Amino acid sequence: MRDVLPEAARRWRVVEDTLRRVLAGFAYEEVHLPLLEFTELFSRGVGEATDIVAKEMYSLEDRDGTGITLRPEGTAGCARALQQAGLLFNQTQRVFYTGPMFRYERPQKGRYRQFAQIGAEVFGLAGPDVDAELLALSWNFWQALGIESQVTLELNTLGSAQCRADYRRALVDYLTPQAKALDEDSQRRLTSNPLRILDSKSAQTREILVNAPSLPDYIDTASRDHFARLCELLEQLGIGWTHNPQLVRGLDYYTHTVFEWVTAALGAQGTICAGGRYDGLVELIGGKPTPGAGFALGLERVILLTENHGYLAEQDFSTASDVYCCVLNAADQGWAMSVAANLRQAQPNLRVRVHAGGGKLKNQLRRADLCGASWALIMGEDEVANNQVTVKSLRDATAQRTVAISALAELLK
Ligand code: HAM
Q1: Is 246 in the pocket of ligand 1 (CB under 6 A)?
Q2: Are 97 and 78 contacting, i.e. CB atoms less than 8 angstroms apart?
Q3: Beta carbon of 112 within 6 Å of any ligand 1 atom
Q4: Which of 51, 214, 248, 330 is deepest in the core (most CB within 10 A)?
Q5: Where are the beta strands (DSSP E) in 36-87?
Q6: From the CB of 119, is ligand 1 less than 6 Å away?
Q7: Rounded CA gap, 390 and 262, in Å?
């Protein structure tokens, strides 16, 4: 679990604001959801046999003995909230959420036990047009950050719940006689979550998988049509993708479309965003059958990518303020604070800090330098008496000028 300190938090804010602007442009509505949910929501929704539920949840007992869990993901809670509020019946919803998720995973660069997601979810629409919209939305994220050349889209279809069940049976029938030759994880998954074996990195398991039944052979016509229409729309939108028939995702709720945005620039934790369709989820957690689709991006991973790529790579996040007011006499502190207040109002983008704690001008200028300010406003006896300030550049020692307070905002613009 990481602390986000000021410089990192500044970059974080800019990335998040950029993504929020894109979401607003697609008219998605924000929801705020609890960090704690009943454990049962995830065991039912995400799936008892998934790694997330079986091995990674932070679960505890509430004081009355109820099982509660720090959310490991946002989709189940989002579906629960909208369903409980009666917002899913005969309606469509397009929402997003941001905030921390918790998984007990082995930490490494880009993988943390507390991490932040921005998730977008659509309910009540079953067509491939919505899948395409979600992919266009995420594509616009990368464009807005200028990192689109760093990411590629991997796409697959799992078909309907029935296709998936049929395929699962065929895969288990094929693998069971050779179970002893599979790696340890895959042997365990054979009874709990066999589709995840397709993700195995073990060379020996991969060799066995070469002749395994293939998922595309089990996809029914309606699911194929859904996928074909999605591909057509992506083409029209100019969004490139590759078909990865091995992509099954680690959560049980998916049906039909699944996808991941991956990058080669982050090493092992290269999936920056992932999602798909989950038409069975709402019913699974106690609601009426309601189609759904969505995705979530890992904010830390996206932020890491912006450090070396895109529009924010060269931007300076090291400074805490633009303007530093040096107050030479304690008696003028109130005057200085009002000048700063007026300046903030006139130039809302300026970050204005007023020196506190007294002391010599030299020390105040040193503080100004330390917080990265470009300008010091010197407020001494003469300045205050004449309703003026001396504006001193901290980048160019020769640039200094005394101006009337009324001209200050314009000068600093
Ligand atoms: P997920 O693939 O488990 O899907 O997570 C989505 C994204 O969150 C990942 O692609 C990754 O960028 C980020 N992420 C996951 N685990 C970690 C971690 N330990 N540290 C840092 N980042 C991480 C979901 O959570 C689904 N709820 C997505 C979804 C929404 N599907 C439909 N709607």
Answers
A1: no
A2: yes
A3: yes
A4: 248
A5: 36-38, 58-61, 67-70
A6: yes
A7: 52
**Residue ranges covered by each domain of the chain:** 6-160+220-314, 323-412
Q: CB of 98 closer than 6 A to ligand 1?
A: no
For ligand 1, atom 17: residue with the closest CA: 111
- Intrachain domains 6-160+220-314 and 323-412 with the same fold: no
Q: In the structure, what pLDDT confidence band is assigned to residue 193 with cuts at 50, 70 and 90?
A: confident
Task: Fold for 6-160+220-314, please state it.
Answer: BirA Bifunctional Protein; domain 2 (3.30.930)
Ligand 1, pocket-test mutation among 113, 247, 301, most atoms within 8 A of CB: 301
Is pTM beyond 0.85? Reply is yes
Return the beta strands (E) in 264-335 as ranges: 271-277, 292-298, 323-327
Q: How far is the CA of 271 from the centre of ligand 1 (A)?
A: 8
Lowest mean pLDDT among 75-84, 190-199, 389-398: 190-199
Using DSSP's 3-state secondary structure scheme, residue 391 falls into strand
Residue 46 DSSP code: I
User: How many whole angstroms from its chain centre is CA 222?
Assistant: 32
Q: What is the pLDDT of residue 175?
A: 95
Burial status of residue 254 (CB atoms within 10 A of its CB: 0-12, 13-18, 19 or more):
buried
Nearest CA to ligand 1 atom 2: 274
Residue 45 above 90 pLDDT? yes
The reported pLDDT for the residue numbered 397 is 82
- In this structure, the residue with its CA closest to atom 1 of ligand 1 is 274
**What is the CA(353)–ligand 1 centre distance, in A?**
38
CATH 3.40.50.800 fits 323-412, yes or no: yes
User: For residue 29, which phi and psi values (nearest 5 degrees)?
Assistant: -100, 140
